[in-house]
Specification:
Elements (H helix, E strand, L loop, with lengths): L11 E3 L9 E2 L2 H13 L1 E9 L12 E7 L2 E5 L9 H7 L3 E4 L2 H10 L6 E4 H8 L6 H9 L1 E3 L15 H12 L1 H14 L3 H13 L22 H21 L3 H4 L2 H10 L4 H5 L13 H12 L22 H4 L1 H21 L3 H4 L2 H9 L7 H10 L4 H14 L13 H5 L1 H4 L9 H5 L1
Parallel strand pairs: 1-8, 2-5, 3-6, 6-7
Antiparallel strand pairs: 3-4, 4-5
Length: 441
């Protein structure tokens, strides 16, 4: 699906910004001066953030990187400034921003009161332009001929002071964003996809926060090993106790107690604190201070009345996994197979990832419970209600309306058997987009 070959023979390695390592803006006076420079600059503003994912509980920004023509690169420490960023808000909130994978950065920027008037997402643009690999470094190398010095994306950005090589890495993330945007914008225009991109960018910019999960503890890694309601109650108890402690300490939950330790403790059913401490992780020097607390929650779960135990079957308001459709509803399986075949053909023709043409979850829901009226107009209404953008509706409503008439082989006409037969082969593909947030908020 790659586009024309733009890759130079020998990419140029960038180890530090062209203007040198920018100083970190950490006091109000420096912020005021830096904000004046940004306000006086021209064009779109490249924006990025660094968080401490895997280290801290809260997904806040520990560094904000900005770059604008005429202003250079600005690195802002919102922690040192205690979130008092009013000069920066006045300088950039009415402007267009360029971000890479904007849905990852916007929540922590919104928390700081920083909001773009419009945005250009270079990762999403790369997907729409037909690139198979859309990491920032990959696109910069392919389209601009530079290799970015990488290696600190998983660092603990809450550390202070920040090392110079980390600051160089952070500054390089915005060094070439505007130039990359120009290349991608031109390519999307040539392909006739620029309006599609604008619709996608606006959907990302205006997307509401995701709704809280009803039972987040069910996402504990390895929970499938726990087979009983009583065991699930113990997982829930340890998960909730860990989450409370992690929140208080502002530590990533996995650093307070790994998921594997929770599941091991539940399966081992220790009868005493000493037995719990004998298990992996719980006997460590730090963990020994908390084992009595973990054990108390395990005991509380064992004592719960039956009516307070969680249901072993997780409630889900969506359709079942697609690989079970053939048994549960053969006609729905036939609809899904036909719909996937139709959308894959469109995506291949348009050089798009199928998940960007239509969110897989919306496709599954539509095929599982299709509208009674399967006309293109009715299907278009369903897609719009599910969040599909106008360009997506225009490309997919009619093909989907035809696919929704497919039935299982033993019920339909001979010509429909081919679509239904694809169900098993297609059941696993595109069930979950590689990055649905980045693909199409």
């Amino acid at each position: 699906m790659e586009t024309a070959d733009h890759e130079p023979a020998e990419p140029i390695l960038l180890k530090e910004p062209v203007d040198g390592t920018p100083p970190v803006v950490a006091d109000p006076e420096d912020l005021a001066r830096a904000s004046e420079r940004l306000a006086a600059g021209t064009g779109a503003i490249a924006v990025d953030t660094e968080r401490a994912s895997g280290y801290r509980y809260w997904p806040k920004a520990y560094l904000v990187q900005l770059r604008r023509e005429g202003a250079g690169t600005v690195l802002v420490d919102p922690i040192a400034l205690d979130g008092e960023l009013e000069p920066l808000r006045q300088a950039i909130n009415g402007e267009e921003w360029v971000l890479h994978a904007a849905s990852q950065d916007l929540p922590c920027l919104f928390e700081l009161g920083l909001t773009p008037a419009s945005l250009f997402d270079t990762e999403l643009a790369g997907r729409l332009a037909g690139y198979d690999r859309v990491a920032l470094g990959t696109l910069v190398e392919k389209l601009l001929g530079y290799t970015l010095e990488k290696g600190h994306s998983a660092a603990d950005w809450s550390k202070r002071p920040l090392p110079v090589d980390w600051l160089n890495y952070a500054a390089l993330d915005v060094e070439l964003l505007v130039q990359l945007r120009e290349k991608l914008e031109a390519e999307l225009a040539v392909q006739g996809k620029l309006e599609w991109a604008h619709q996608e960018f606006e959907a990302v910019r205006t997307a509401p926060p995701p709704a809280p999960r009803a039972e987040p503890w069910r996402r504990t890694s390895g929970i499938h090993k726990v087979r009983t309601a009583r065991g699930l109650a113990a997982v829930r108890a340890l998960w909730e106790a860990r989450d409370e402690l992690a929140r208080k300490r502002d530590r990533a939950p996995s650093r307070v107690l790994p998921d594997s330790a929770i599941v091991n403790a539940v399966l081992a059913e220790p009868k005493t604190v000493a037995e719990l401490q004998a298990l992996p992780v719980f006997g460590g020097r730090v963990q020994r201070r908390y084992t009595a607390n973990w054990f108390r929650h395990l005991q509380a779960a064992r004592a719960l009345p039956r009516e307070e135990l969680p249901n072993p079957a997780q409630h889900n308001d969506g359709p079942p996994p697609a690989n079970r459709w053939a048994d549960k509803d053969p006609d729905a399986a036939a609809r899904l197979a036909a719909a996937r075949a139709a959308l894959n053909a469109i995506a291949e023709h348009r050089r798009l990832p199928p998940e960007n043409l239509l969110l897989p979850d919306l496709l599954r829901r539509t095929c599982w419970r299709p509208p009674e009226d399967k006309s293109a107009e009715s299907v278009a209404e369903v897609l719009r209600a599910g969040g599909a953008r106008p360009w997506q509706v225009e490309l997919t409503a009619e093909p989907l309306s035809k696919a929704l008439t497919a039935t299982a082989p033993d019920k339909g006409a001979p010509g429909e058997k081919g679509a239904a037969a694809e169900t098993d082969a297609g059941a696993a593909d595109t069930d979950v987009a590689p990055d649905e947030g980045a693909a199409a908020q």
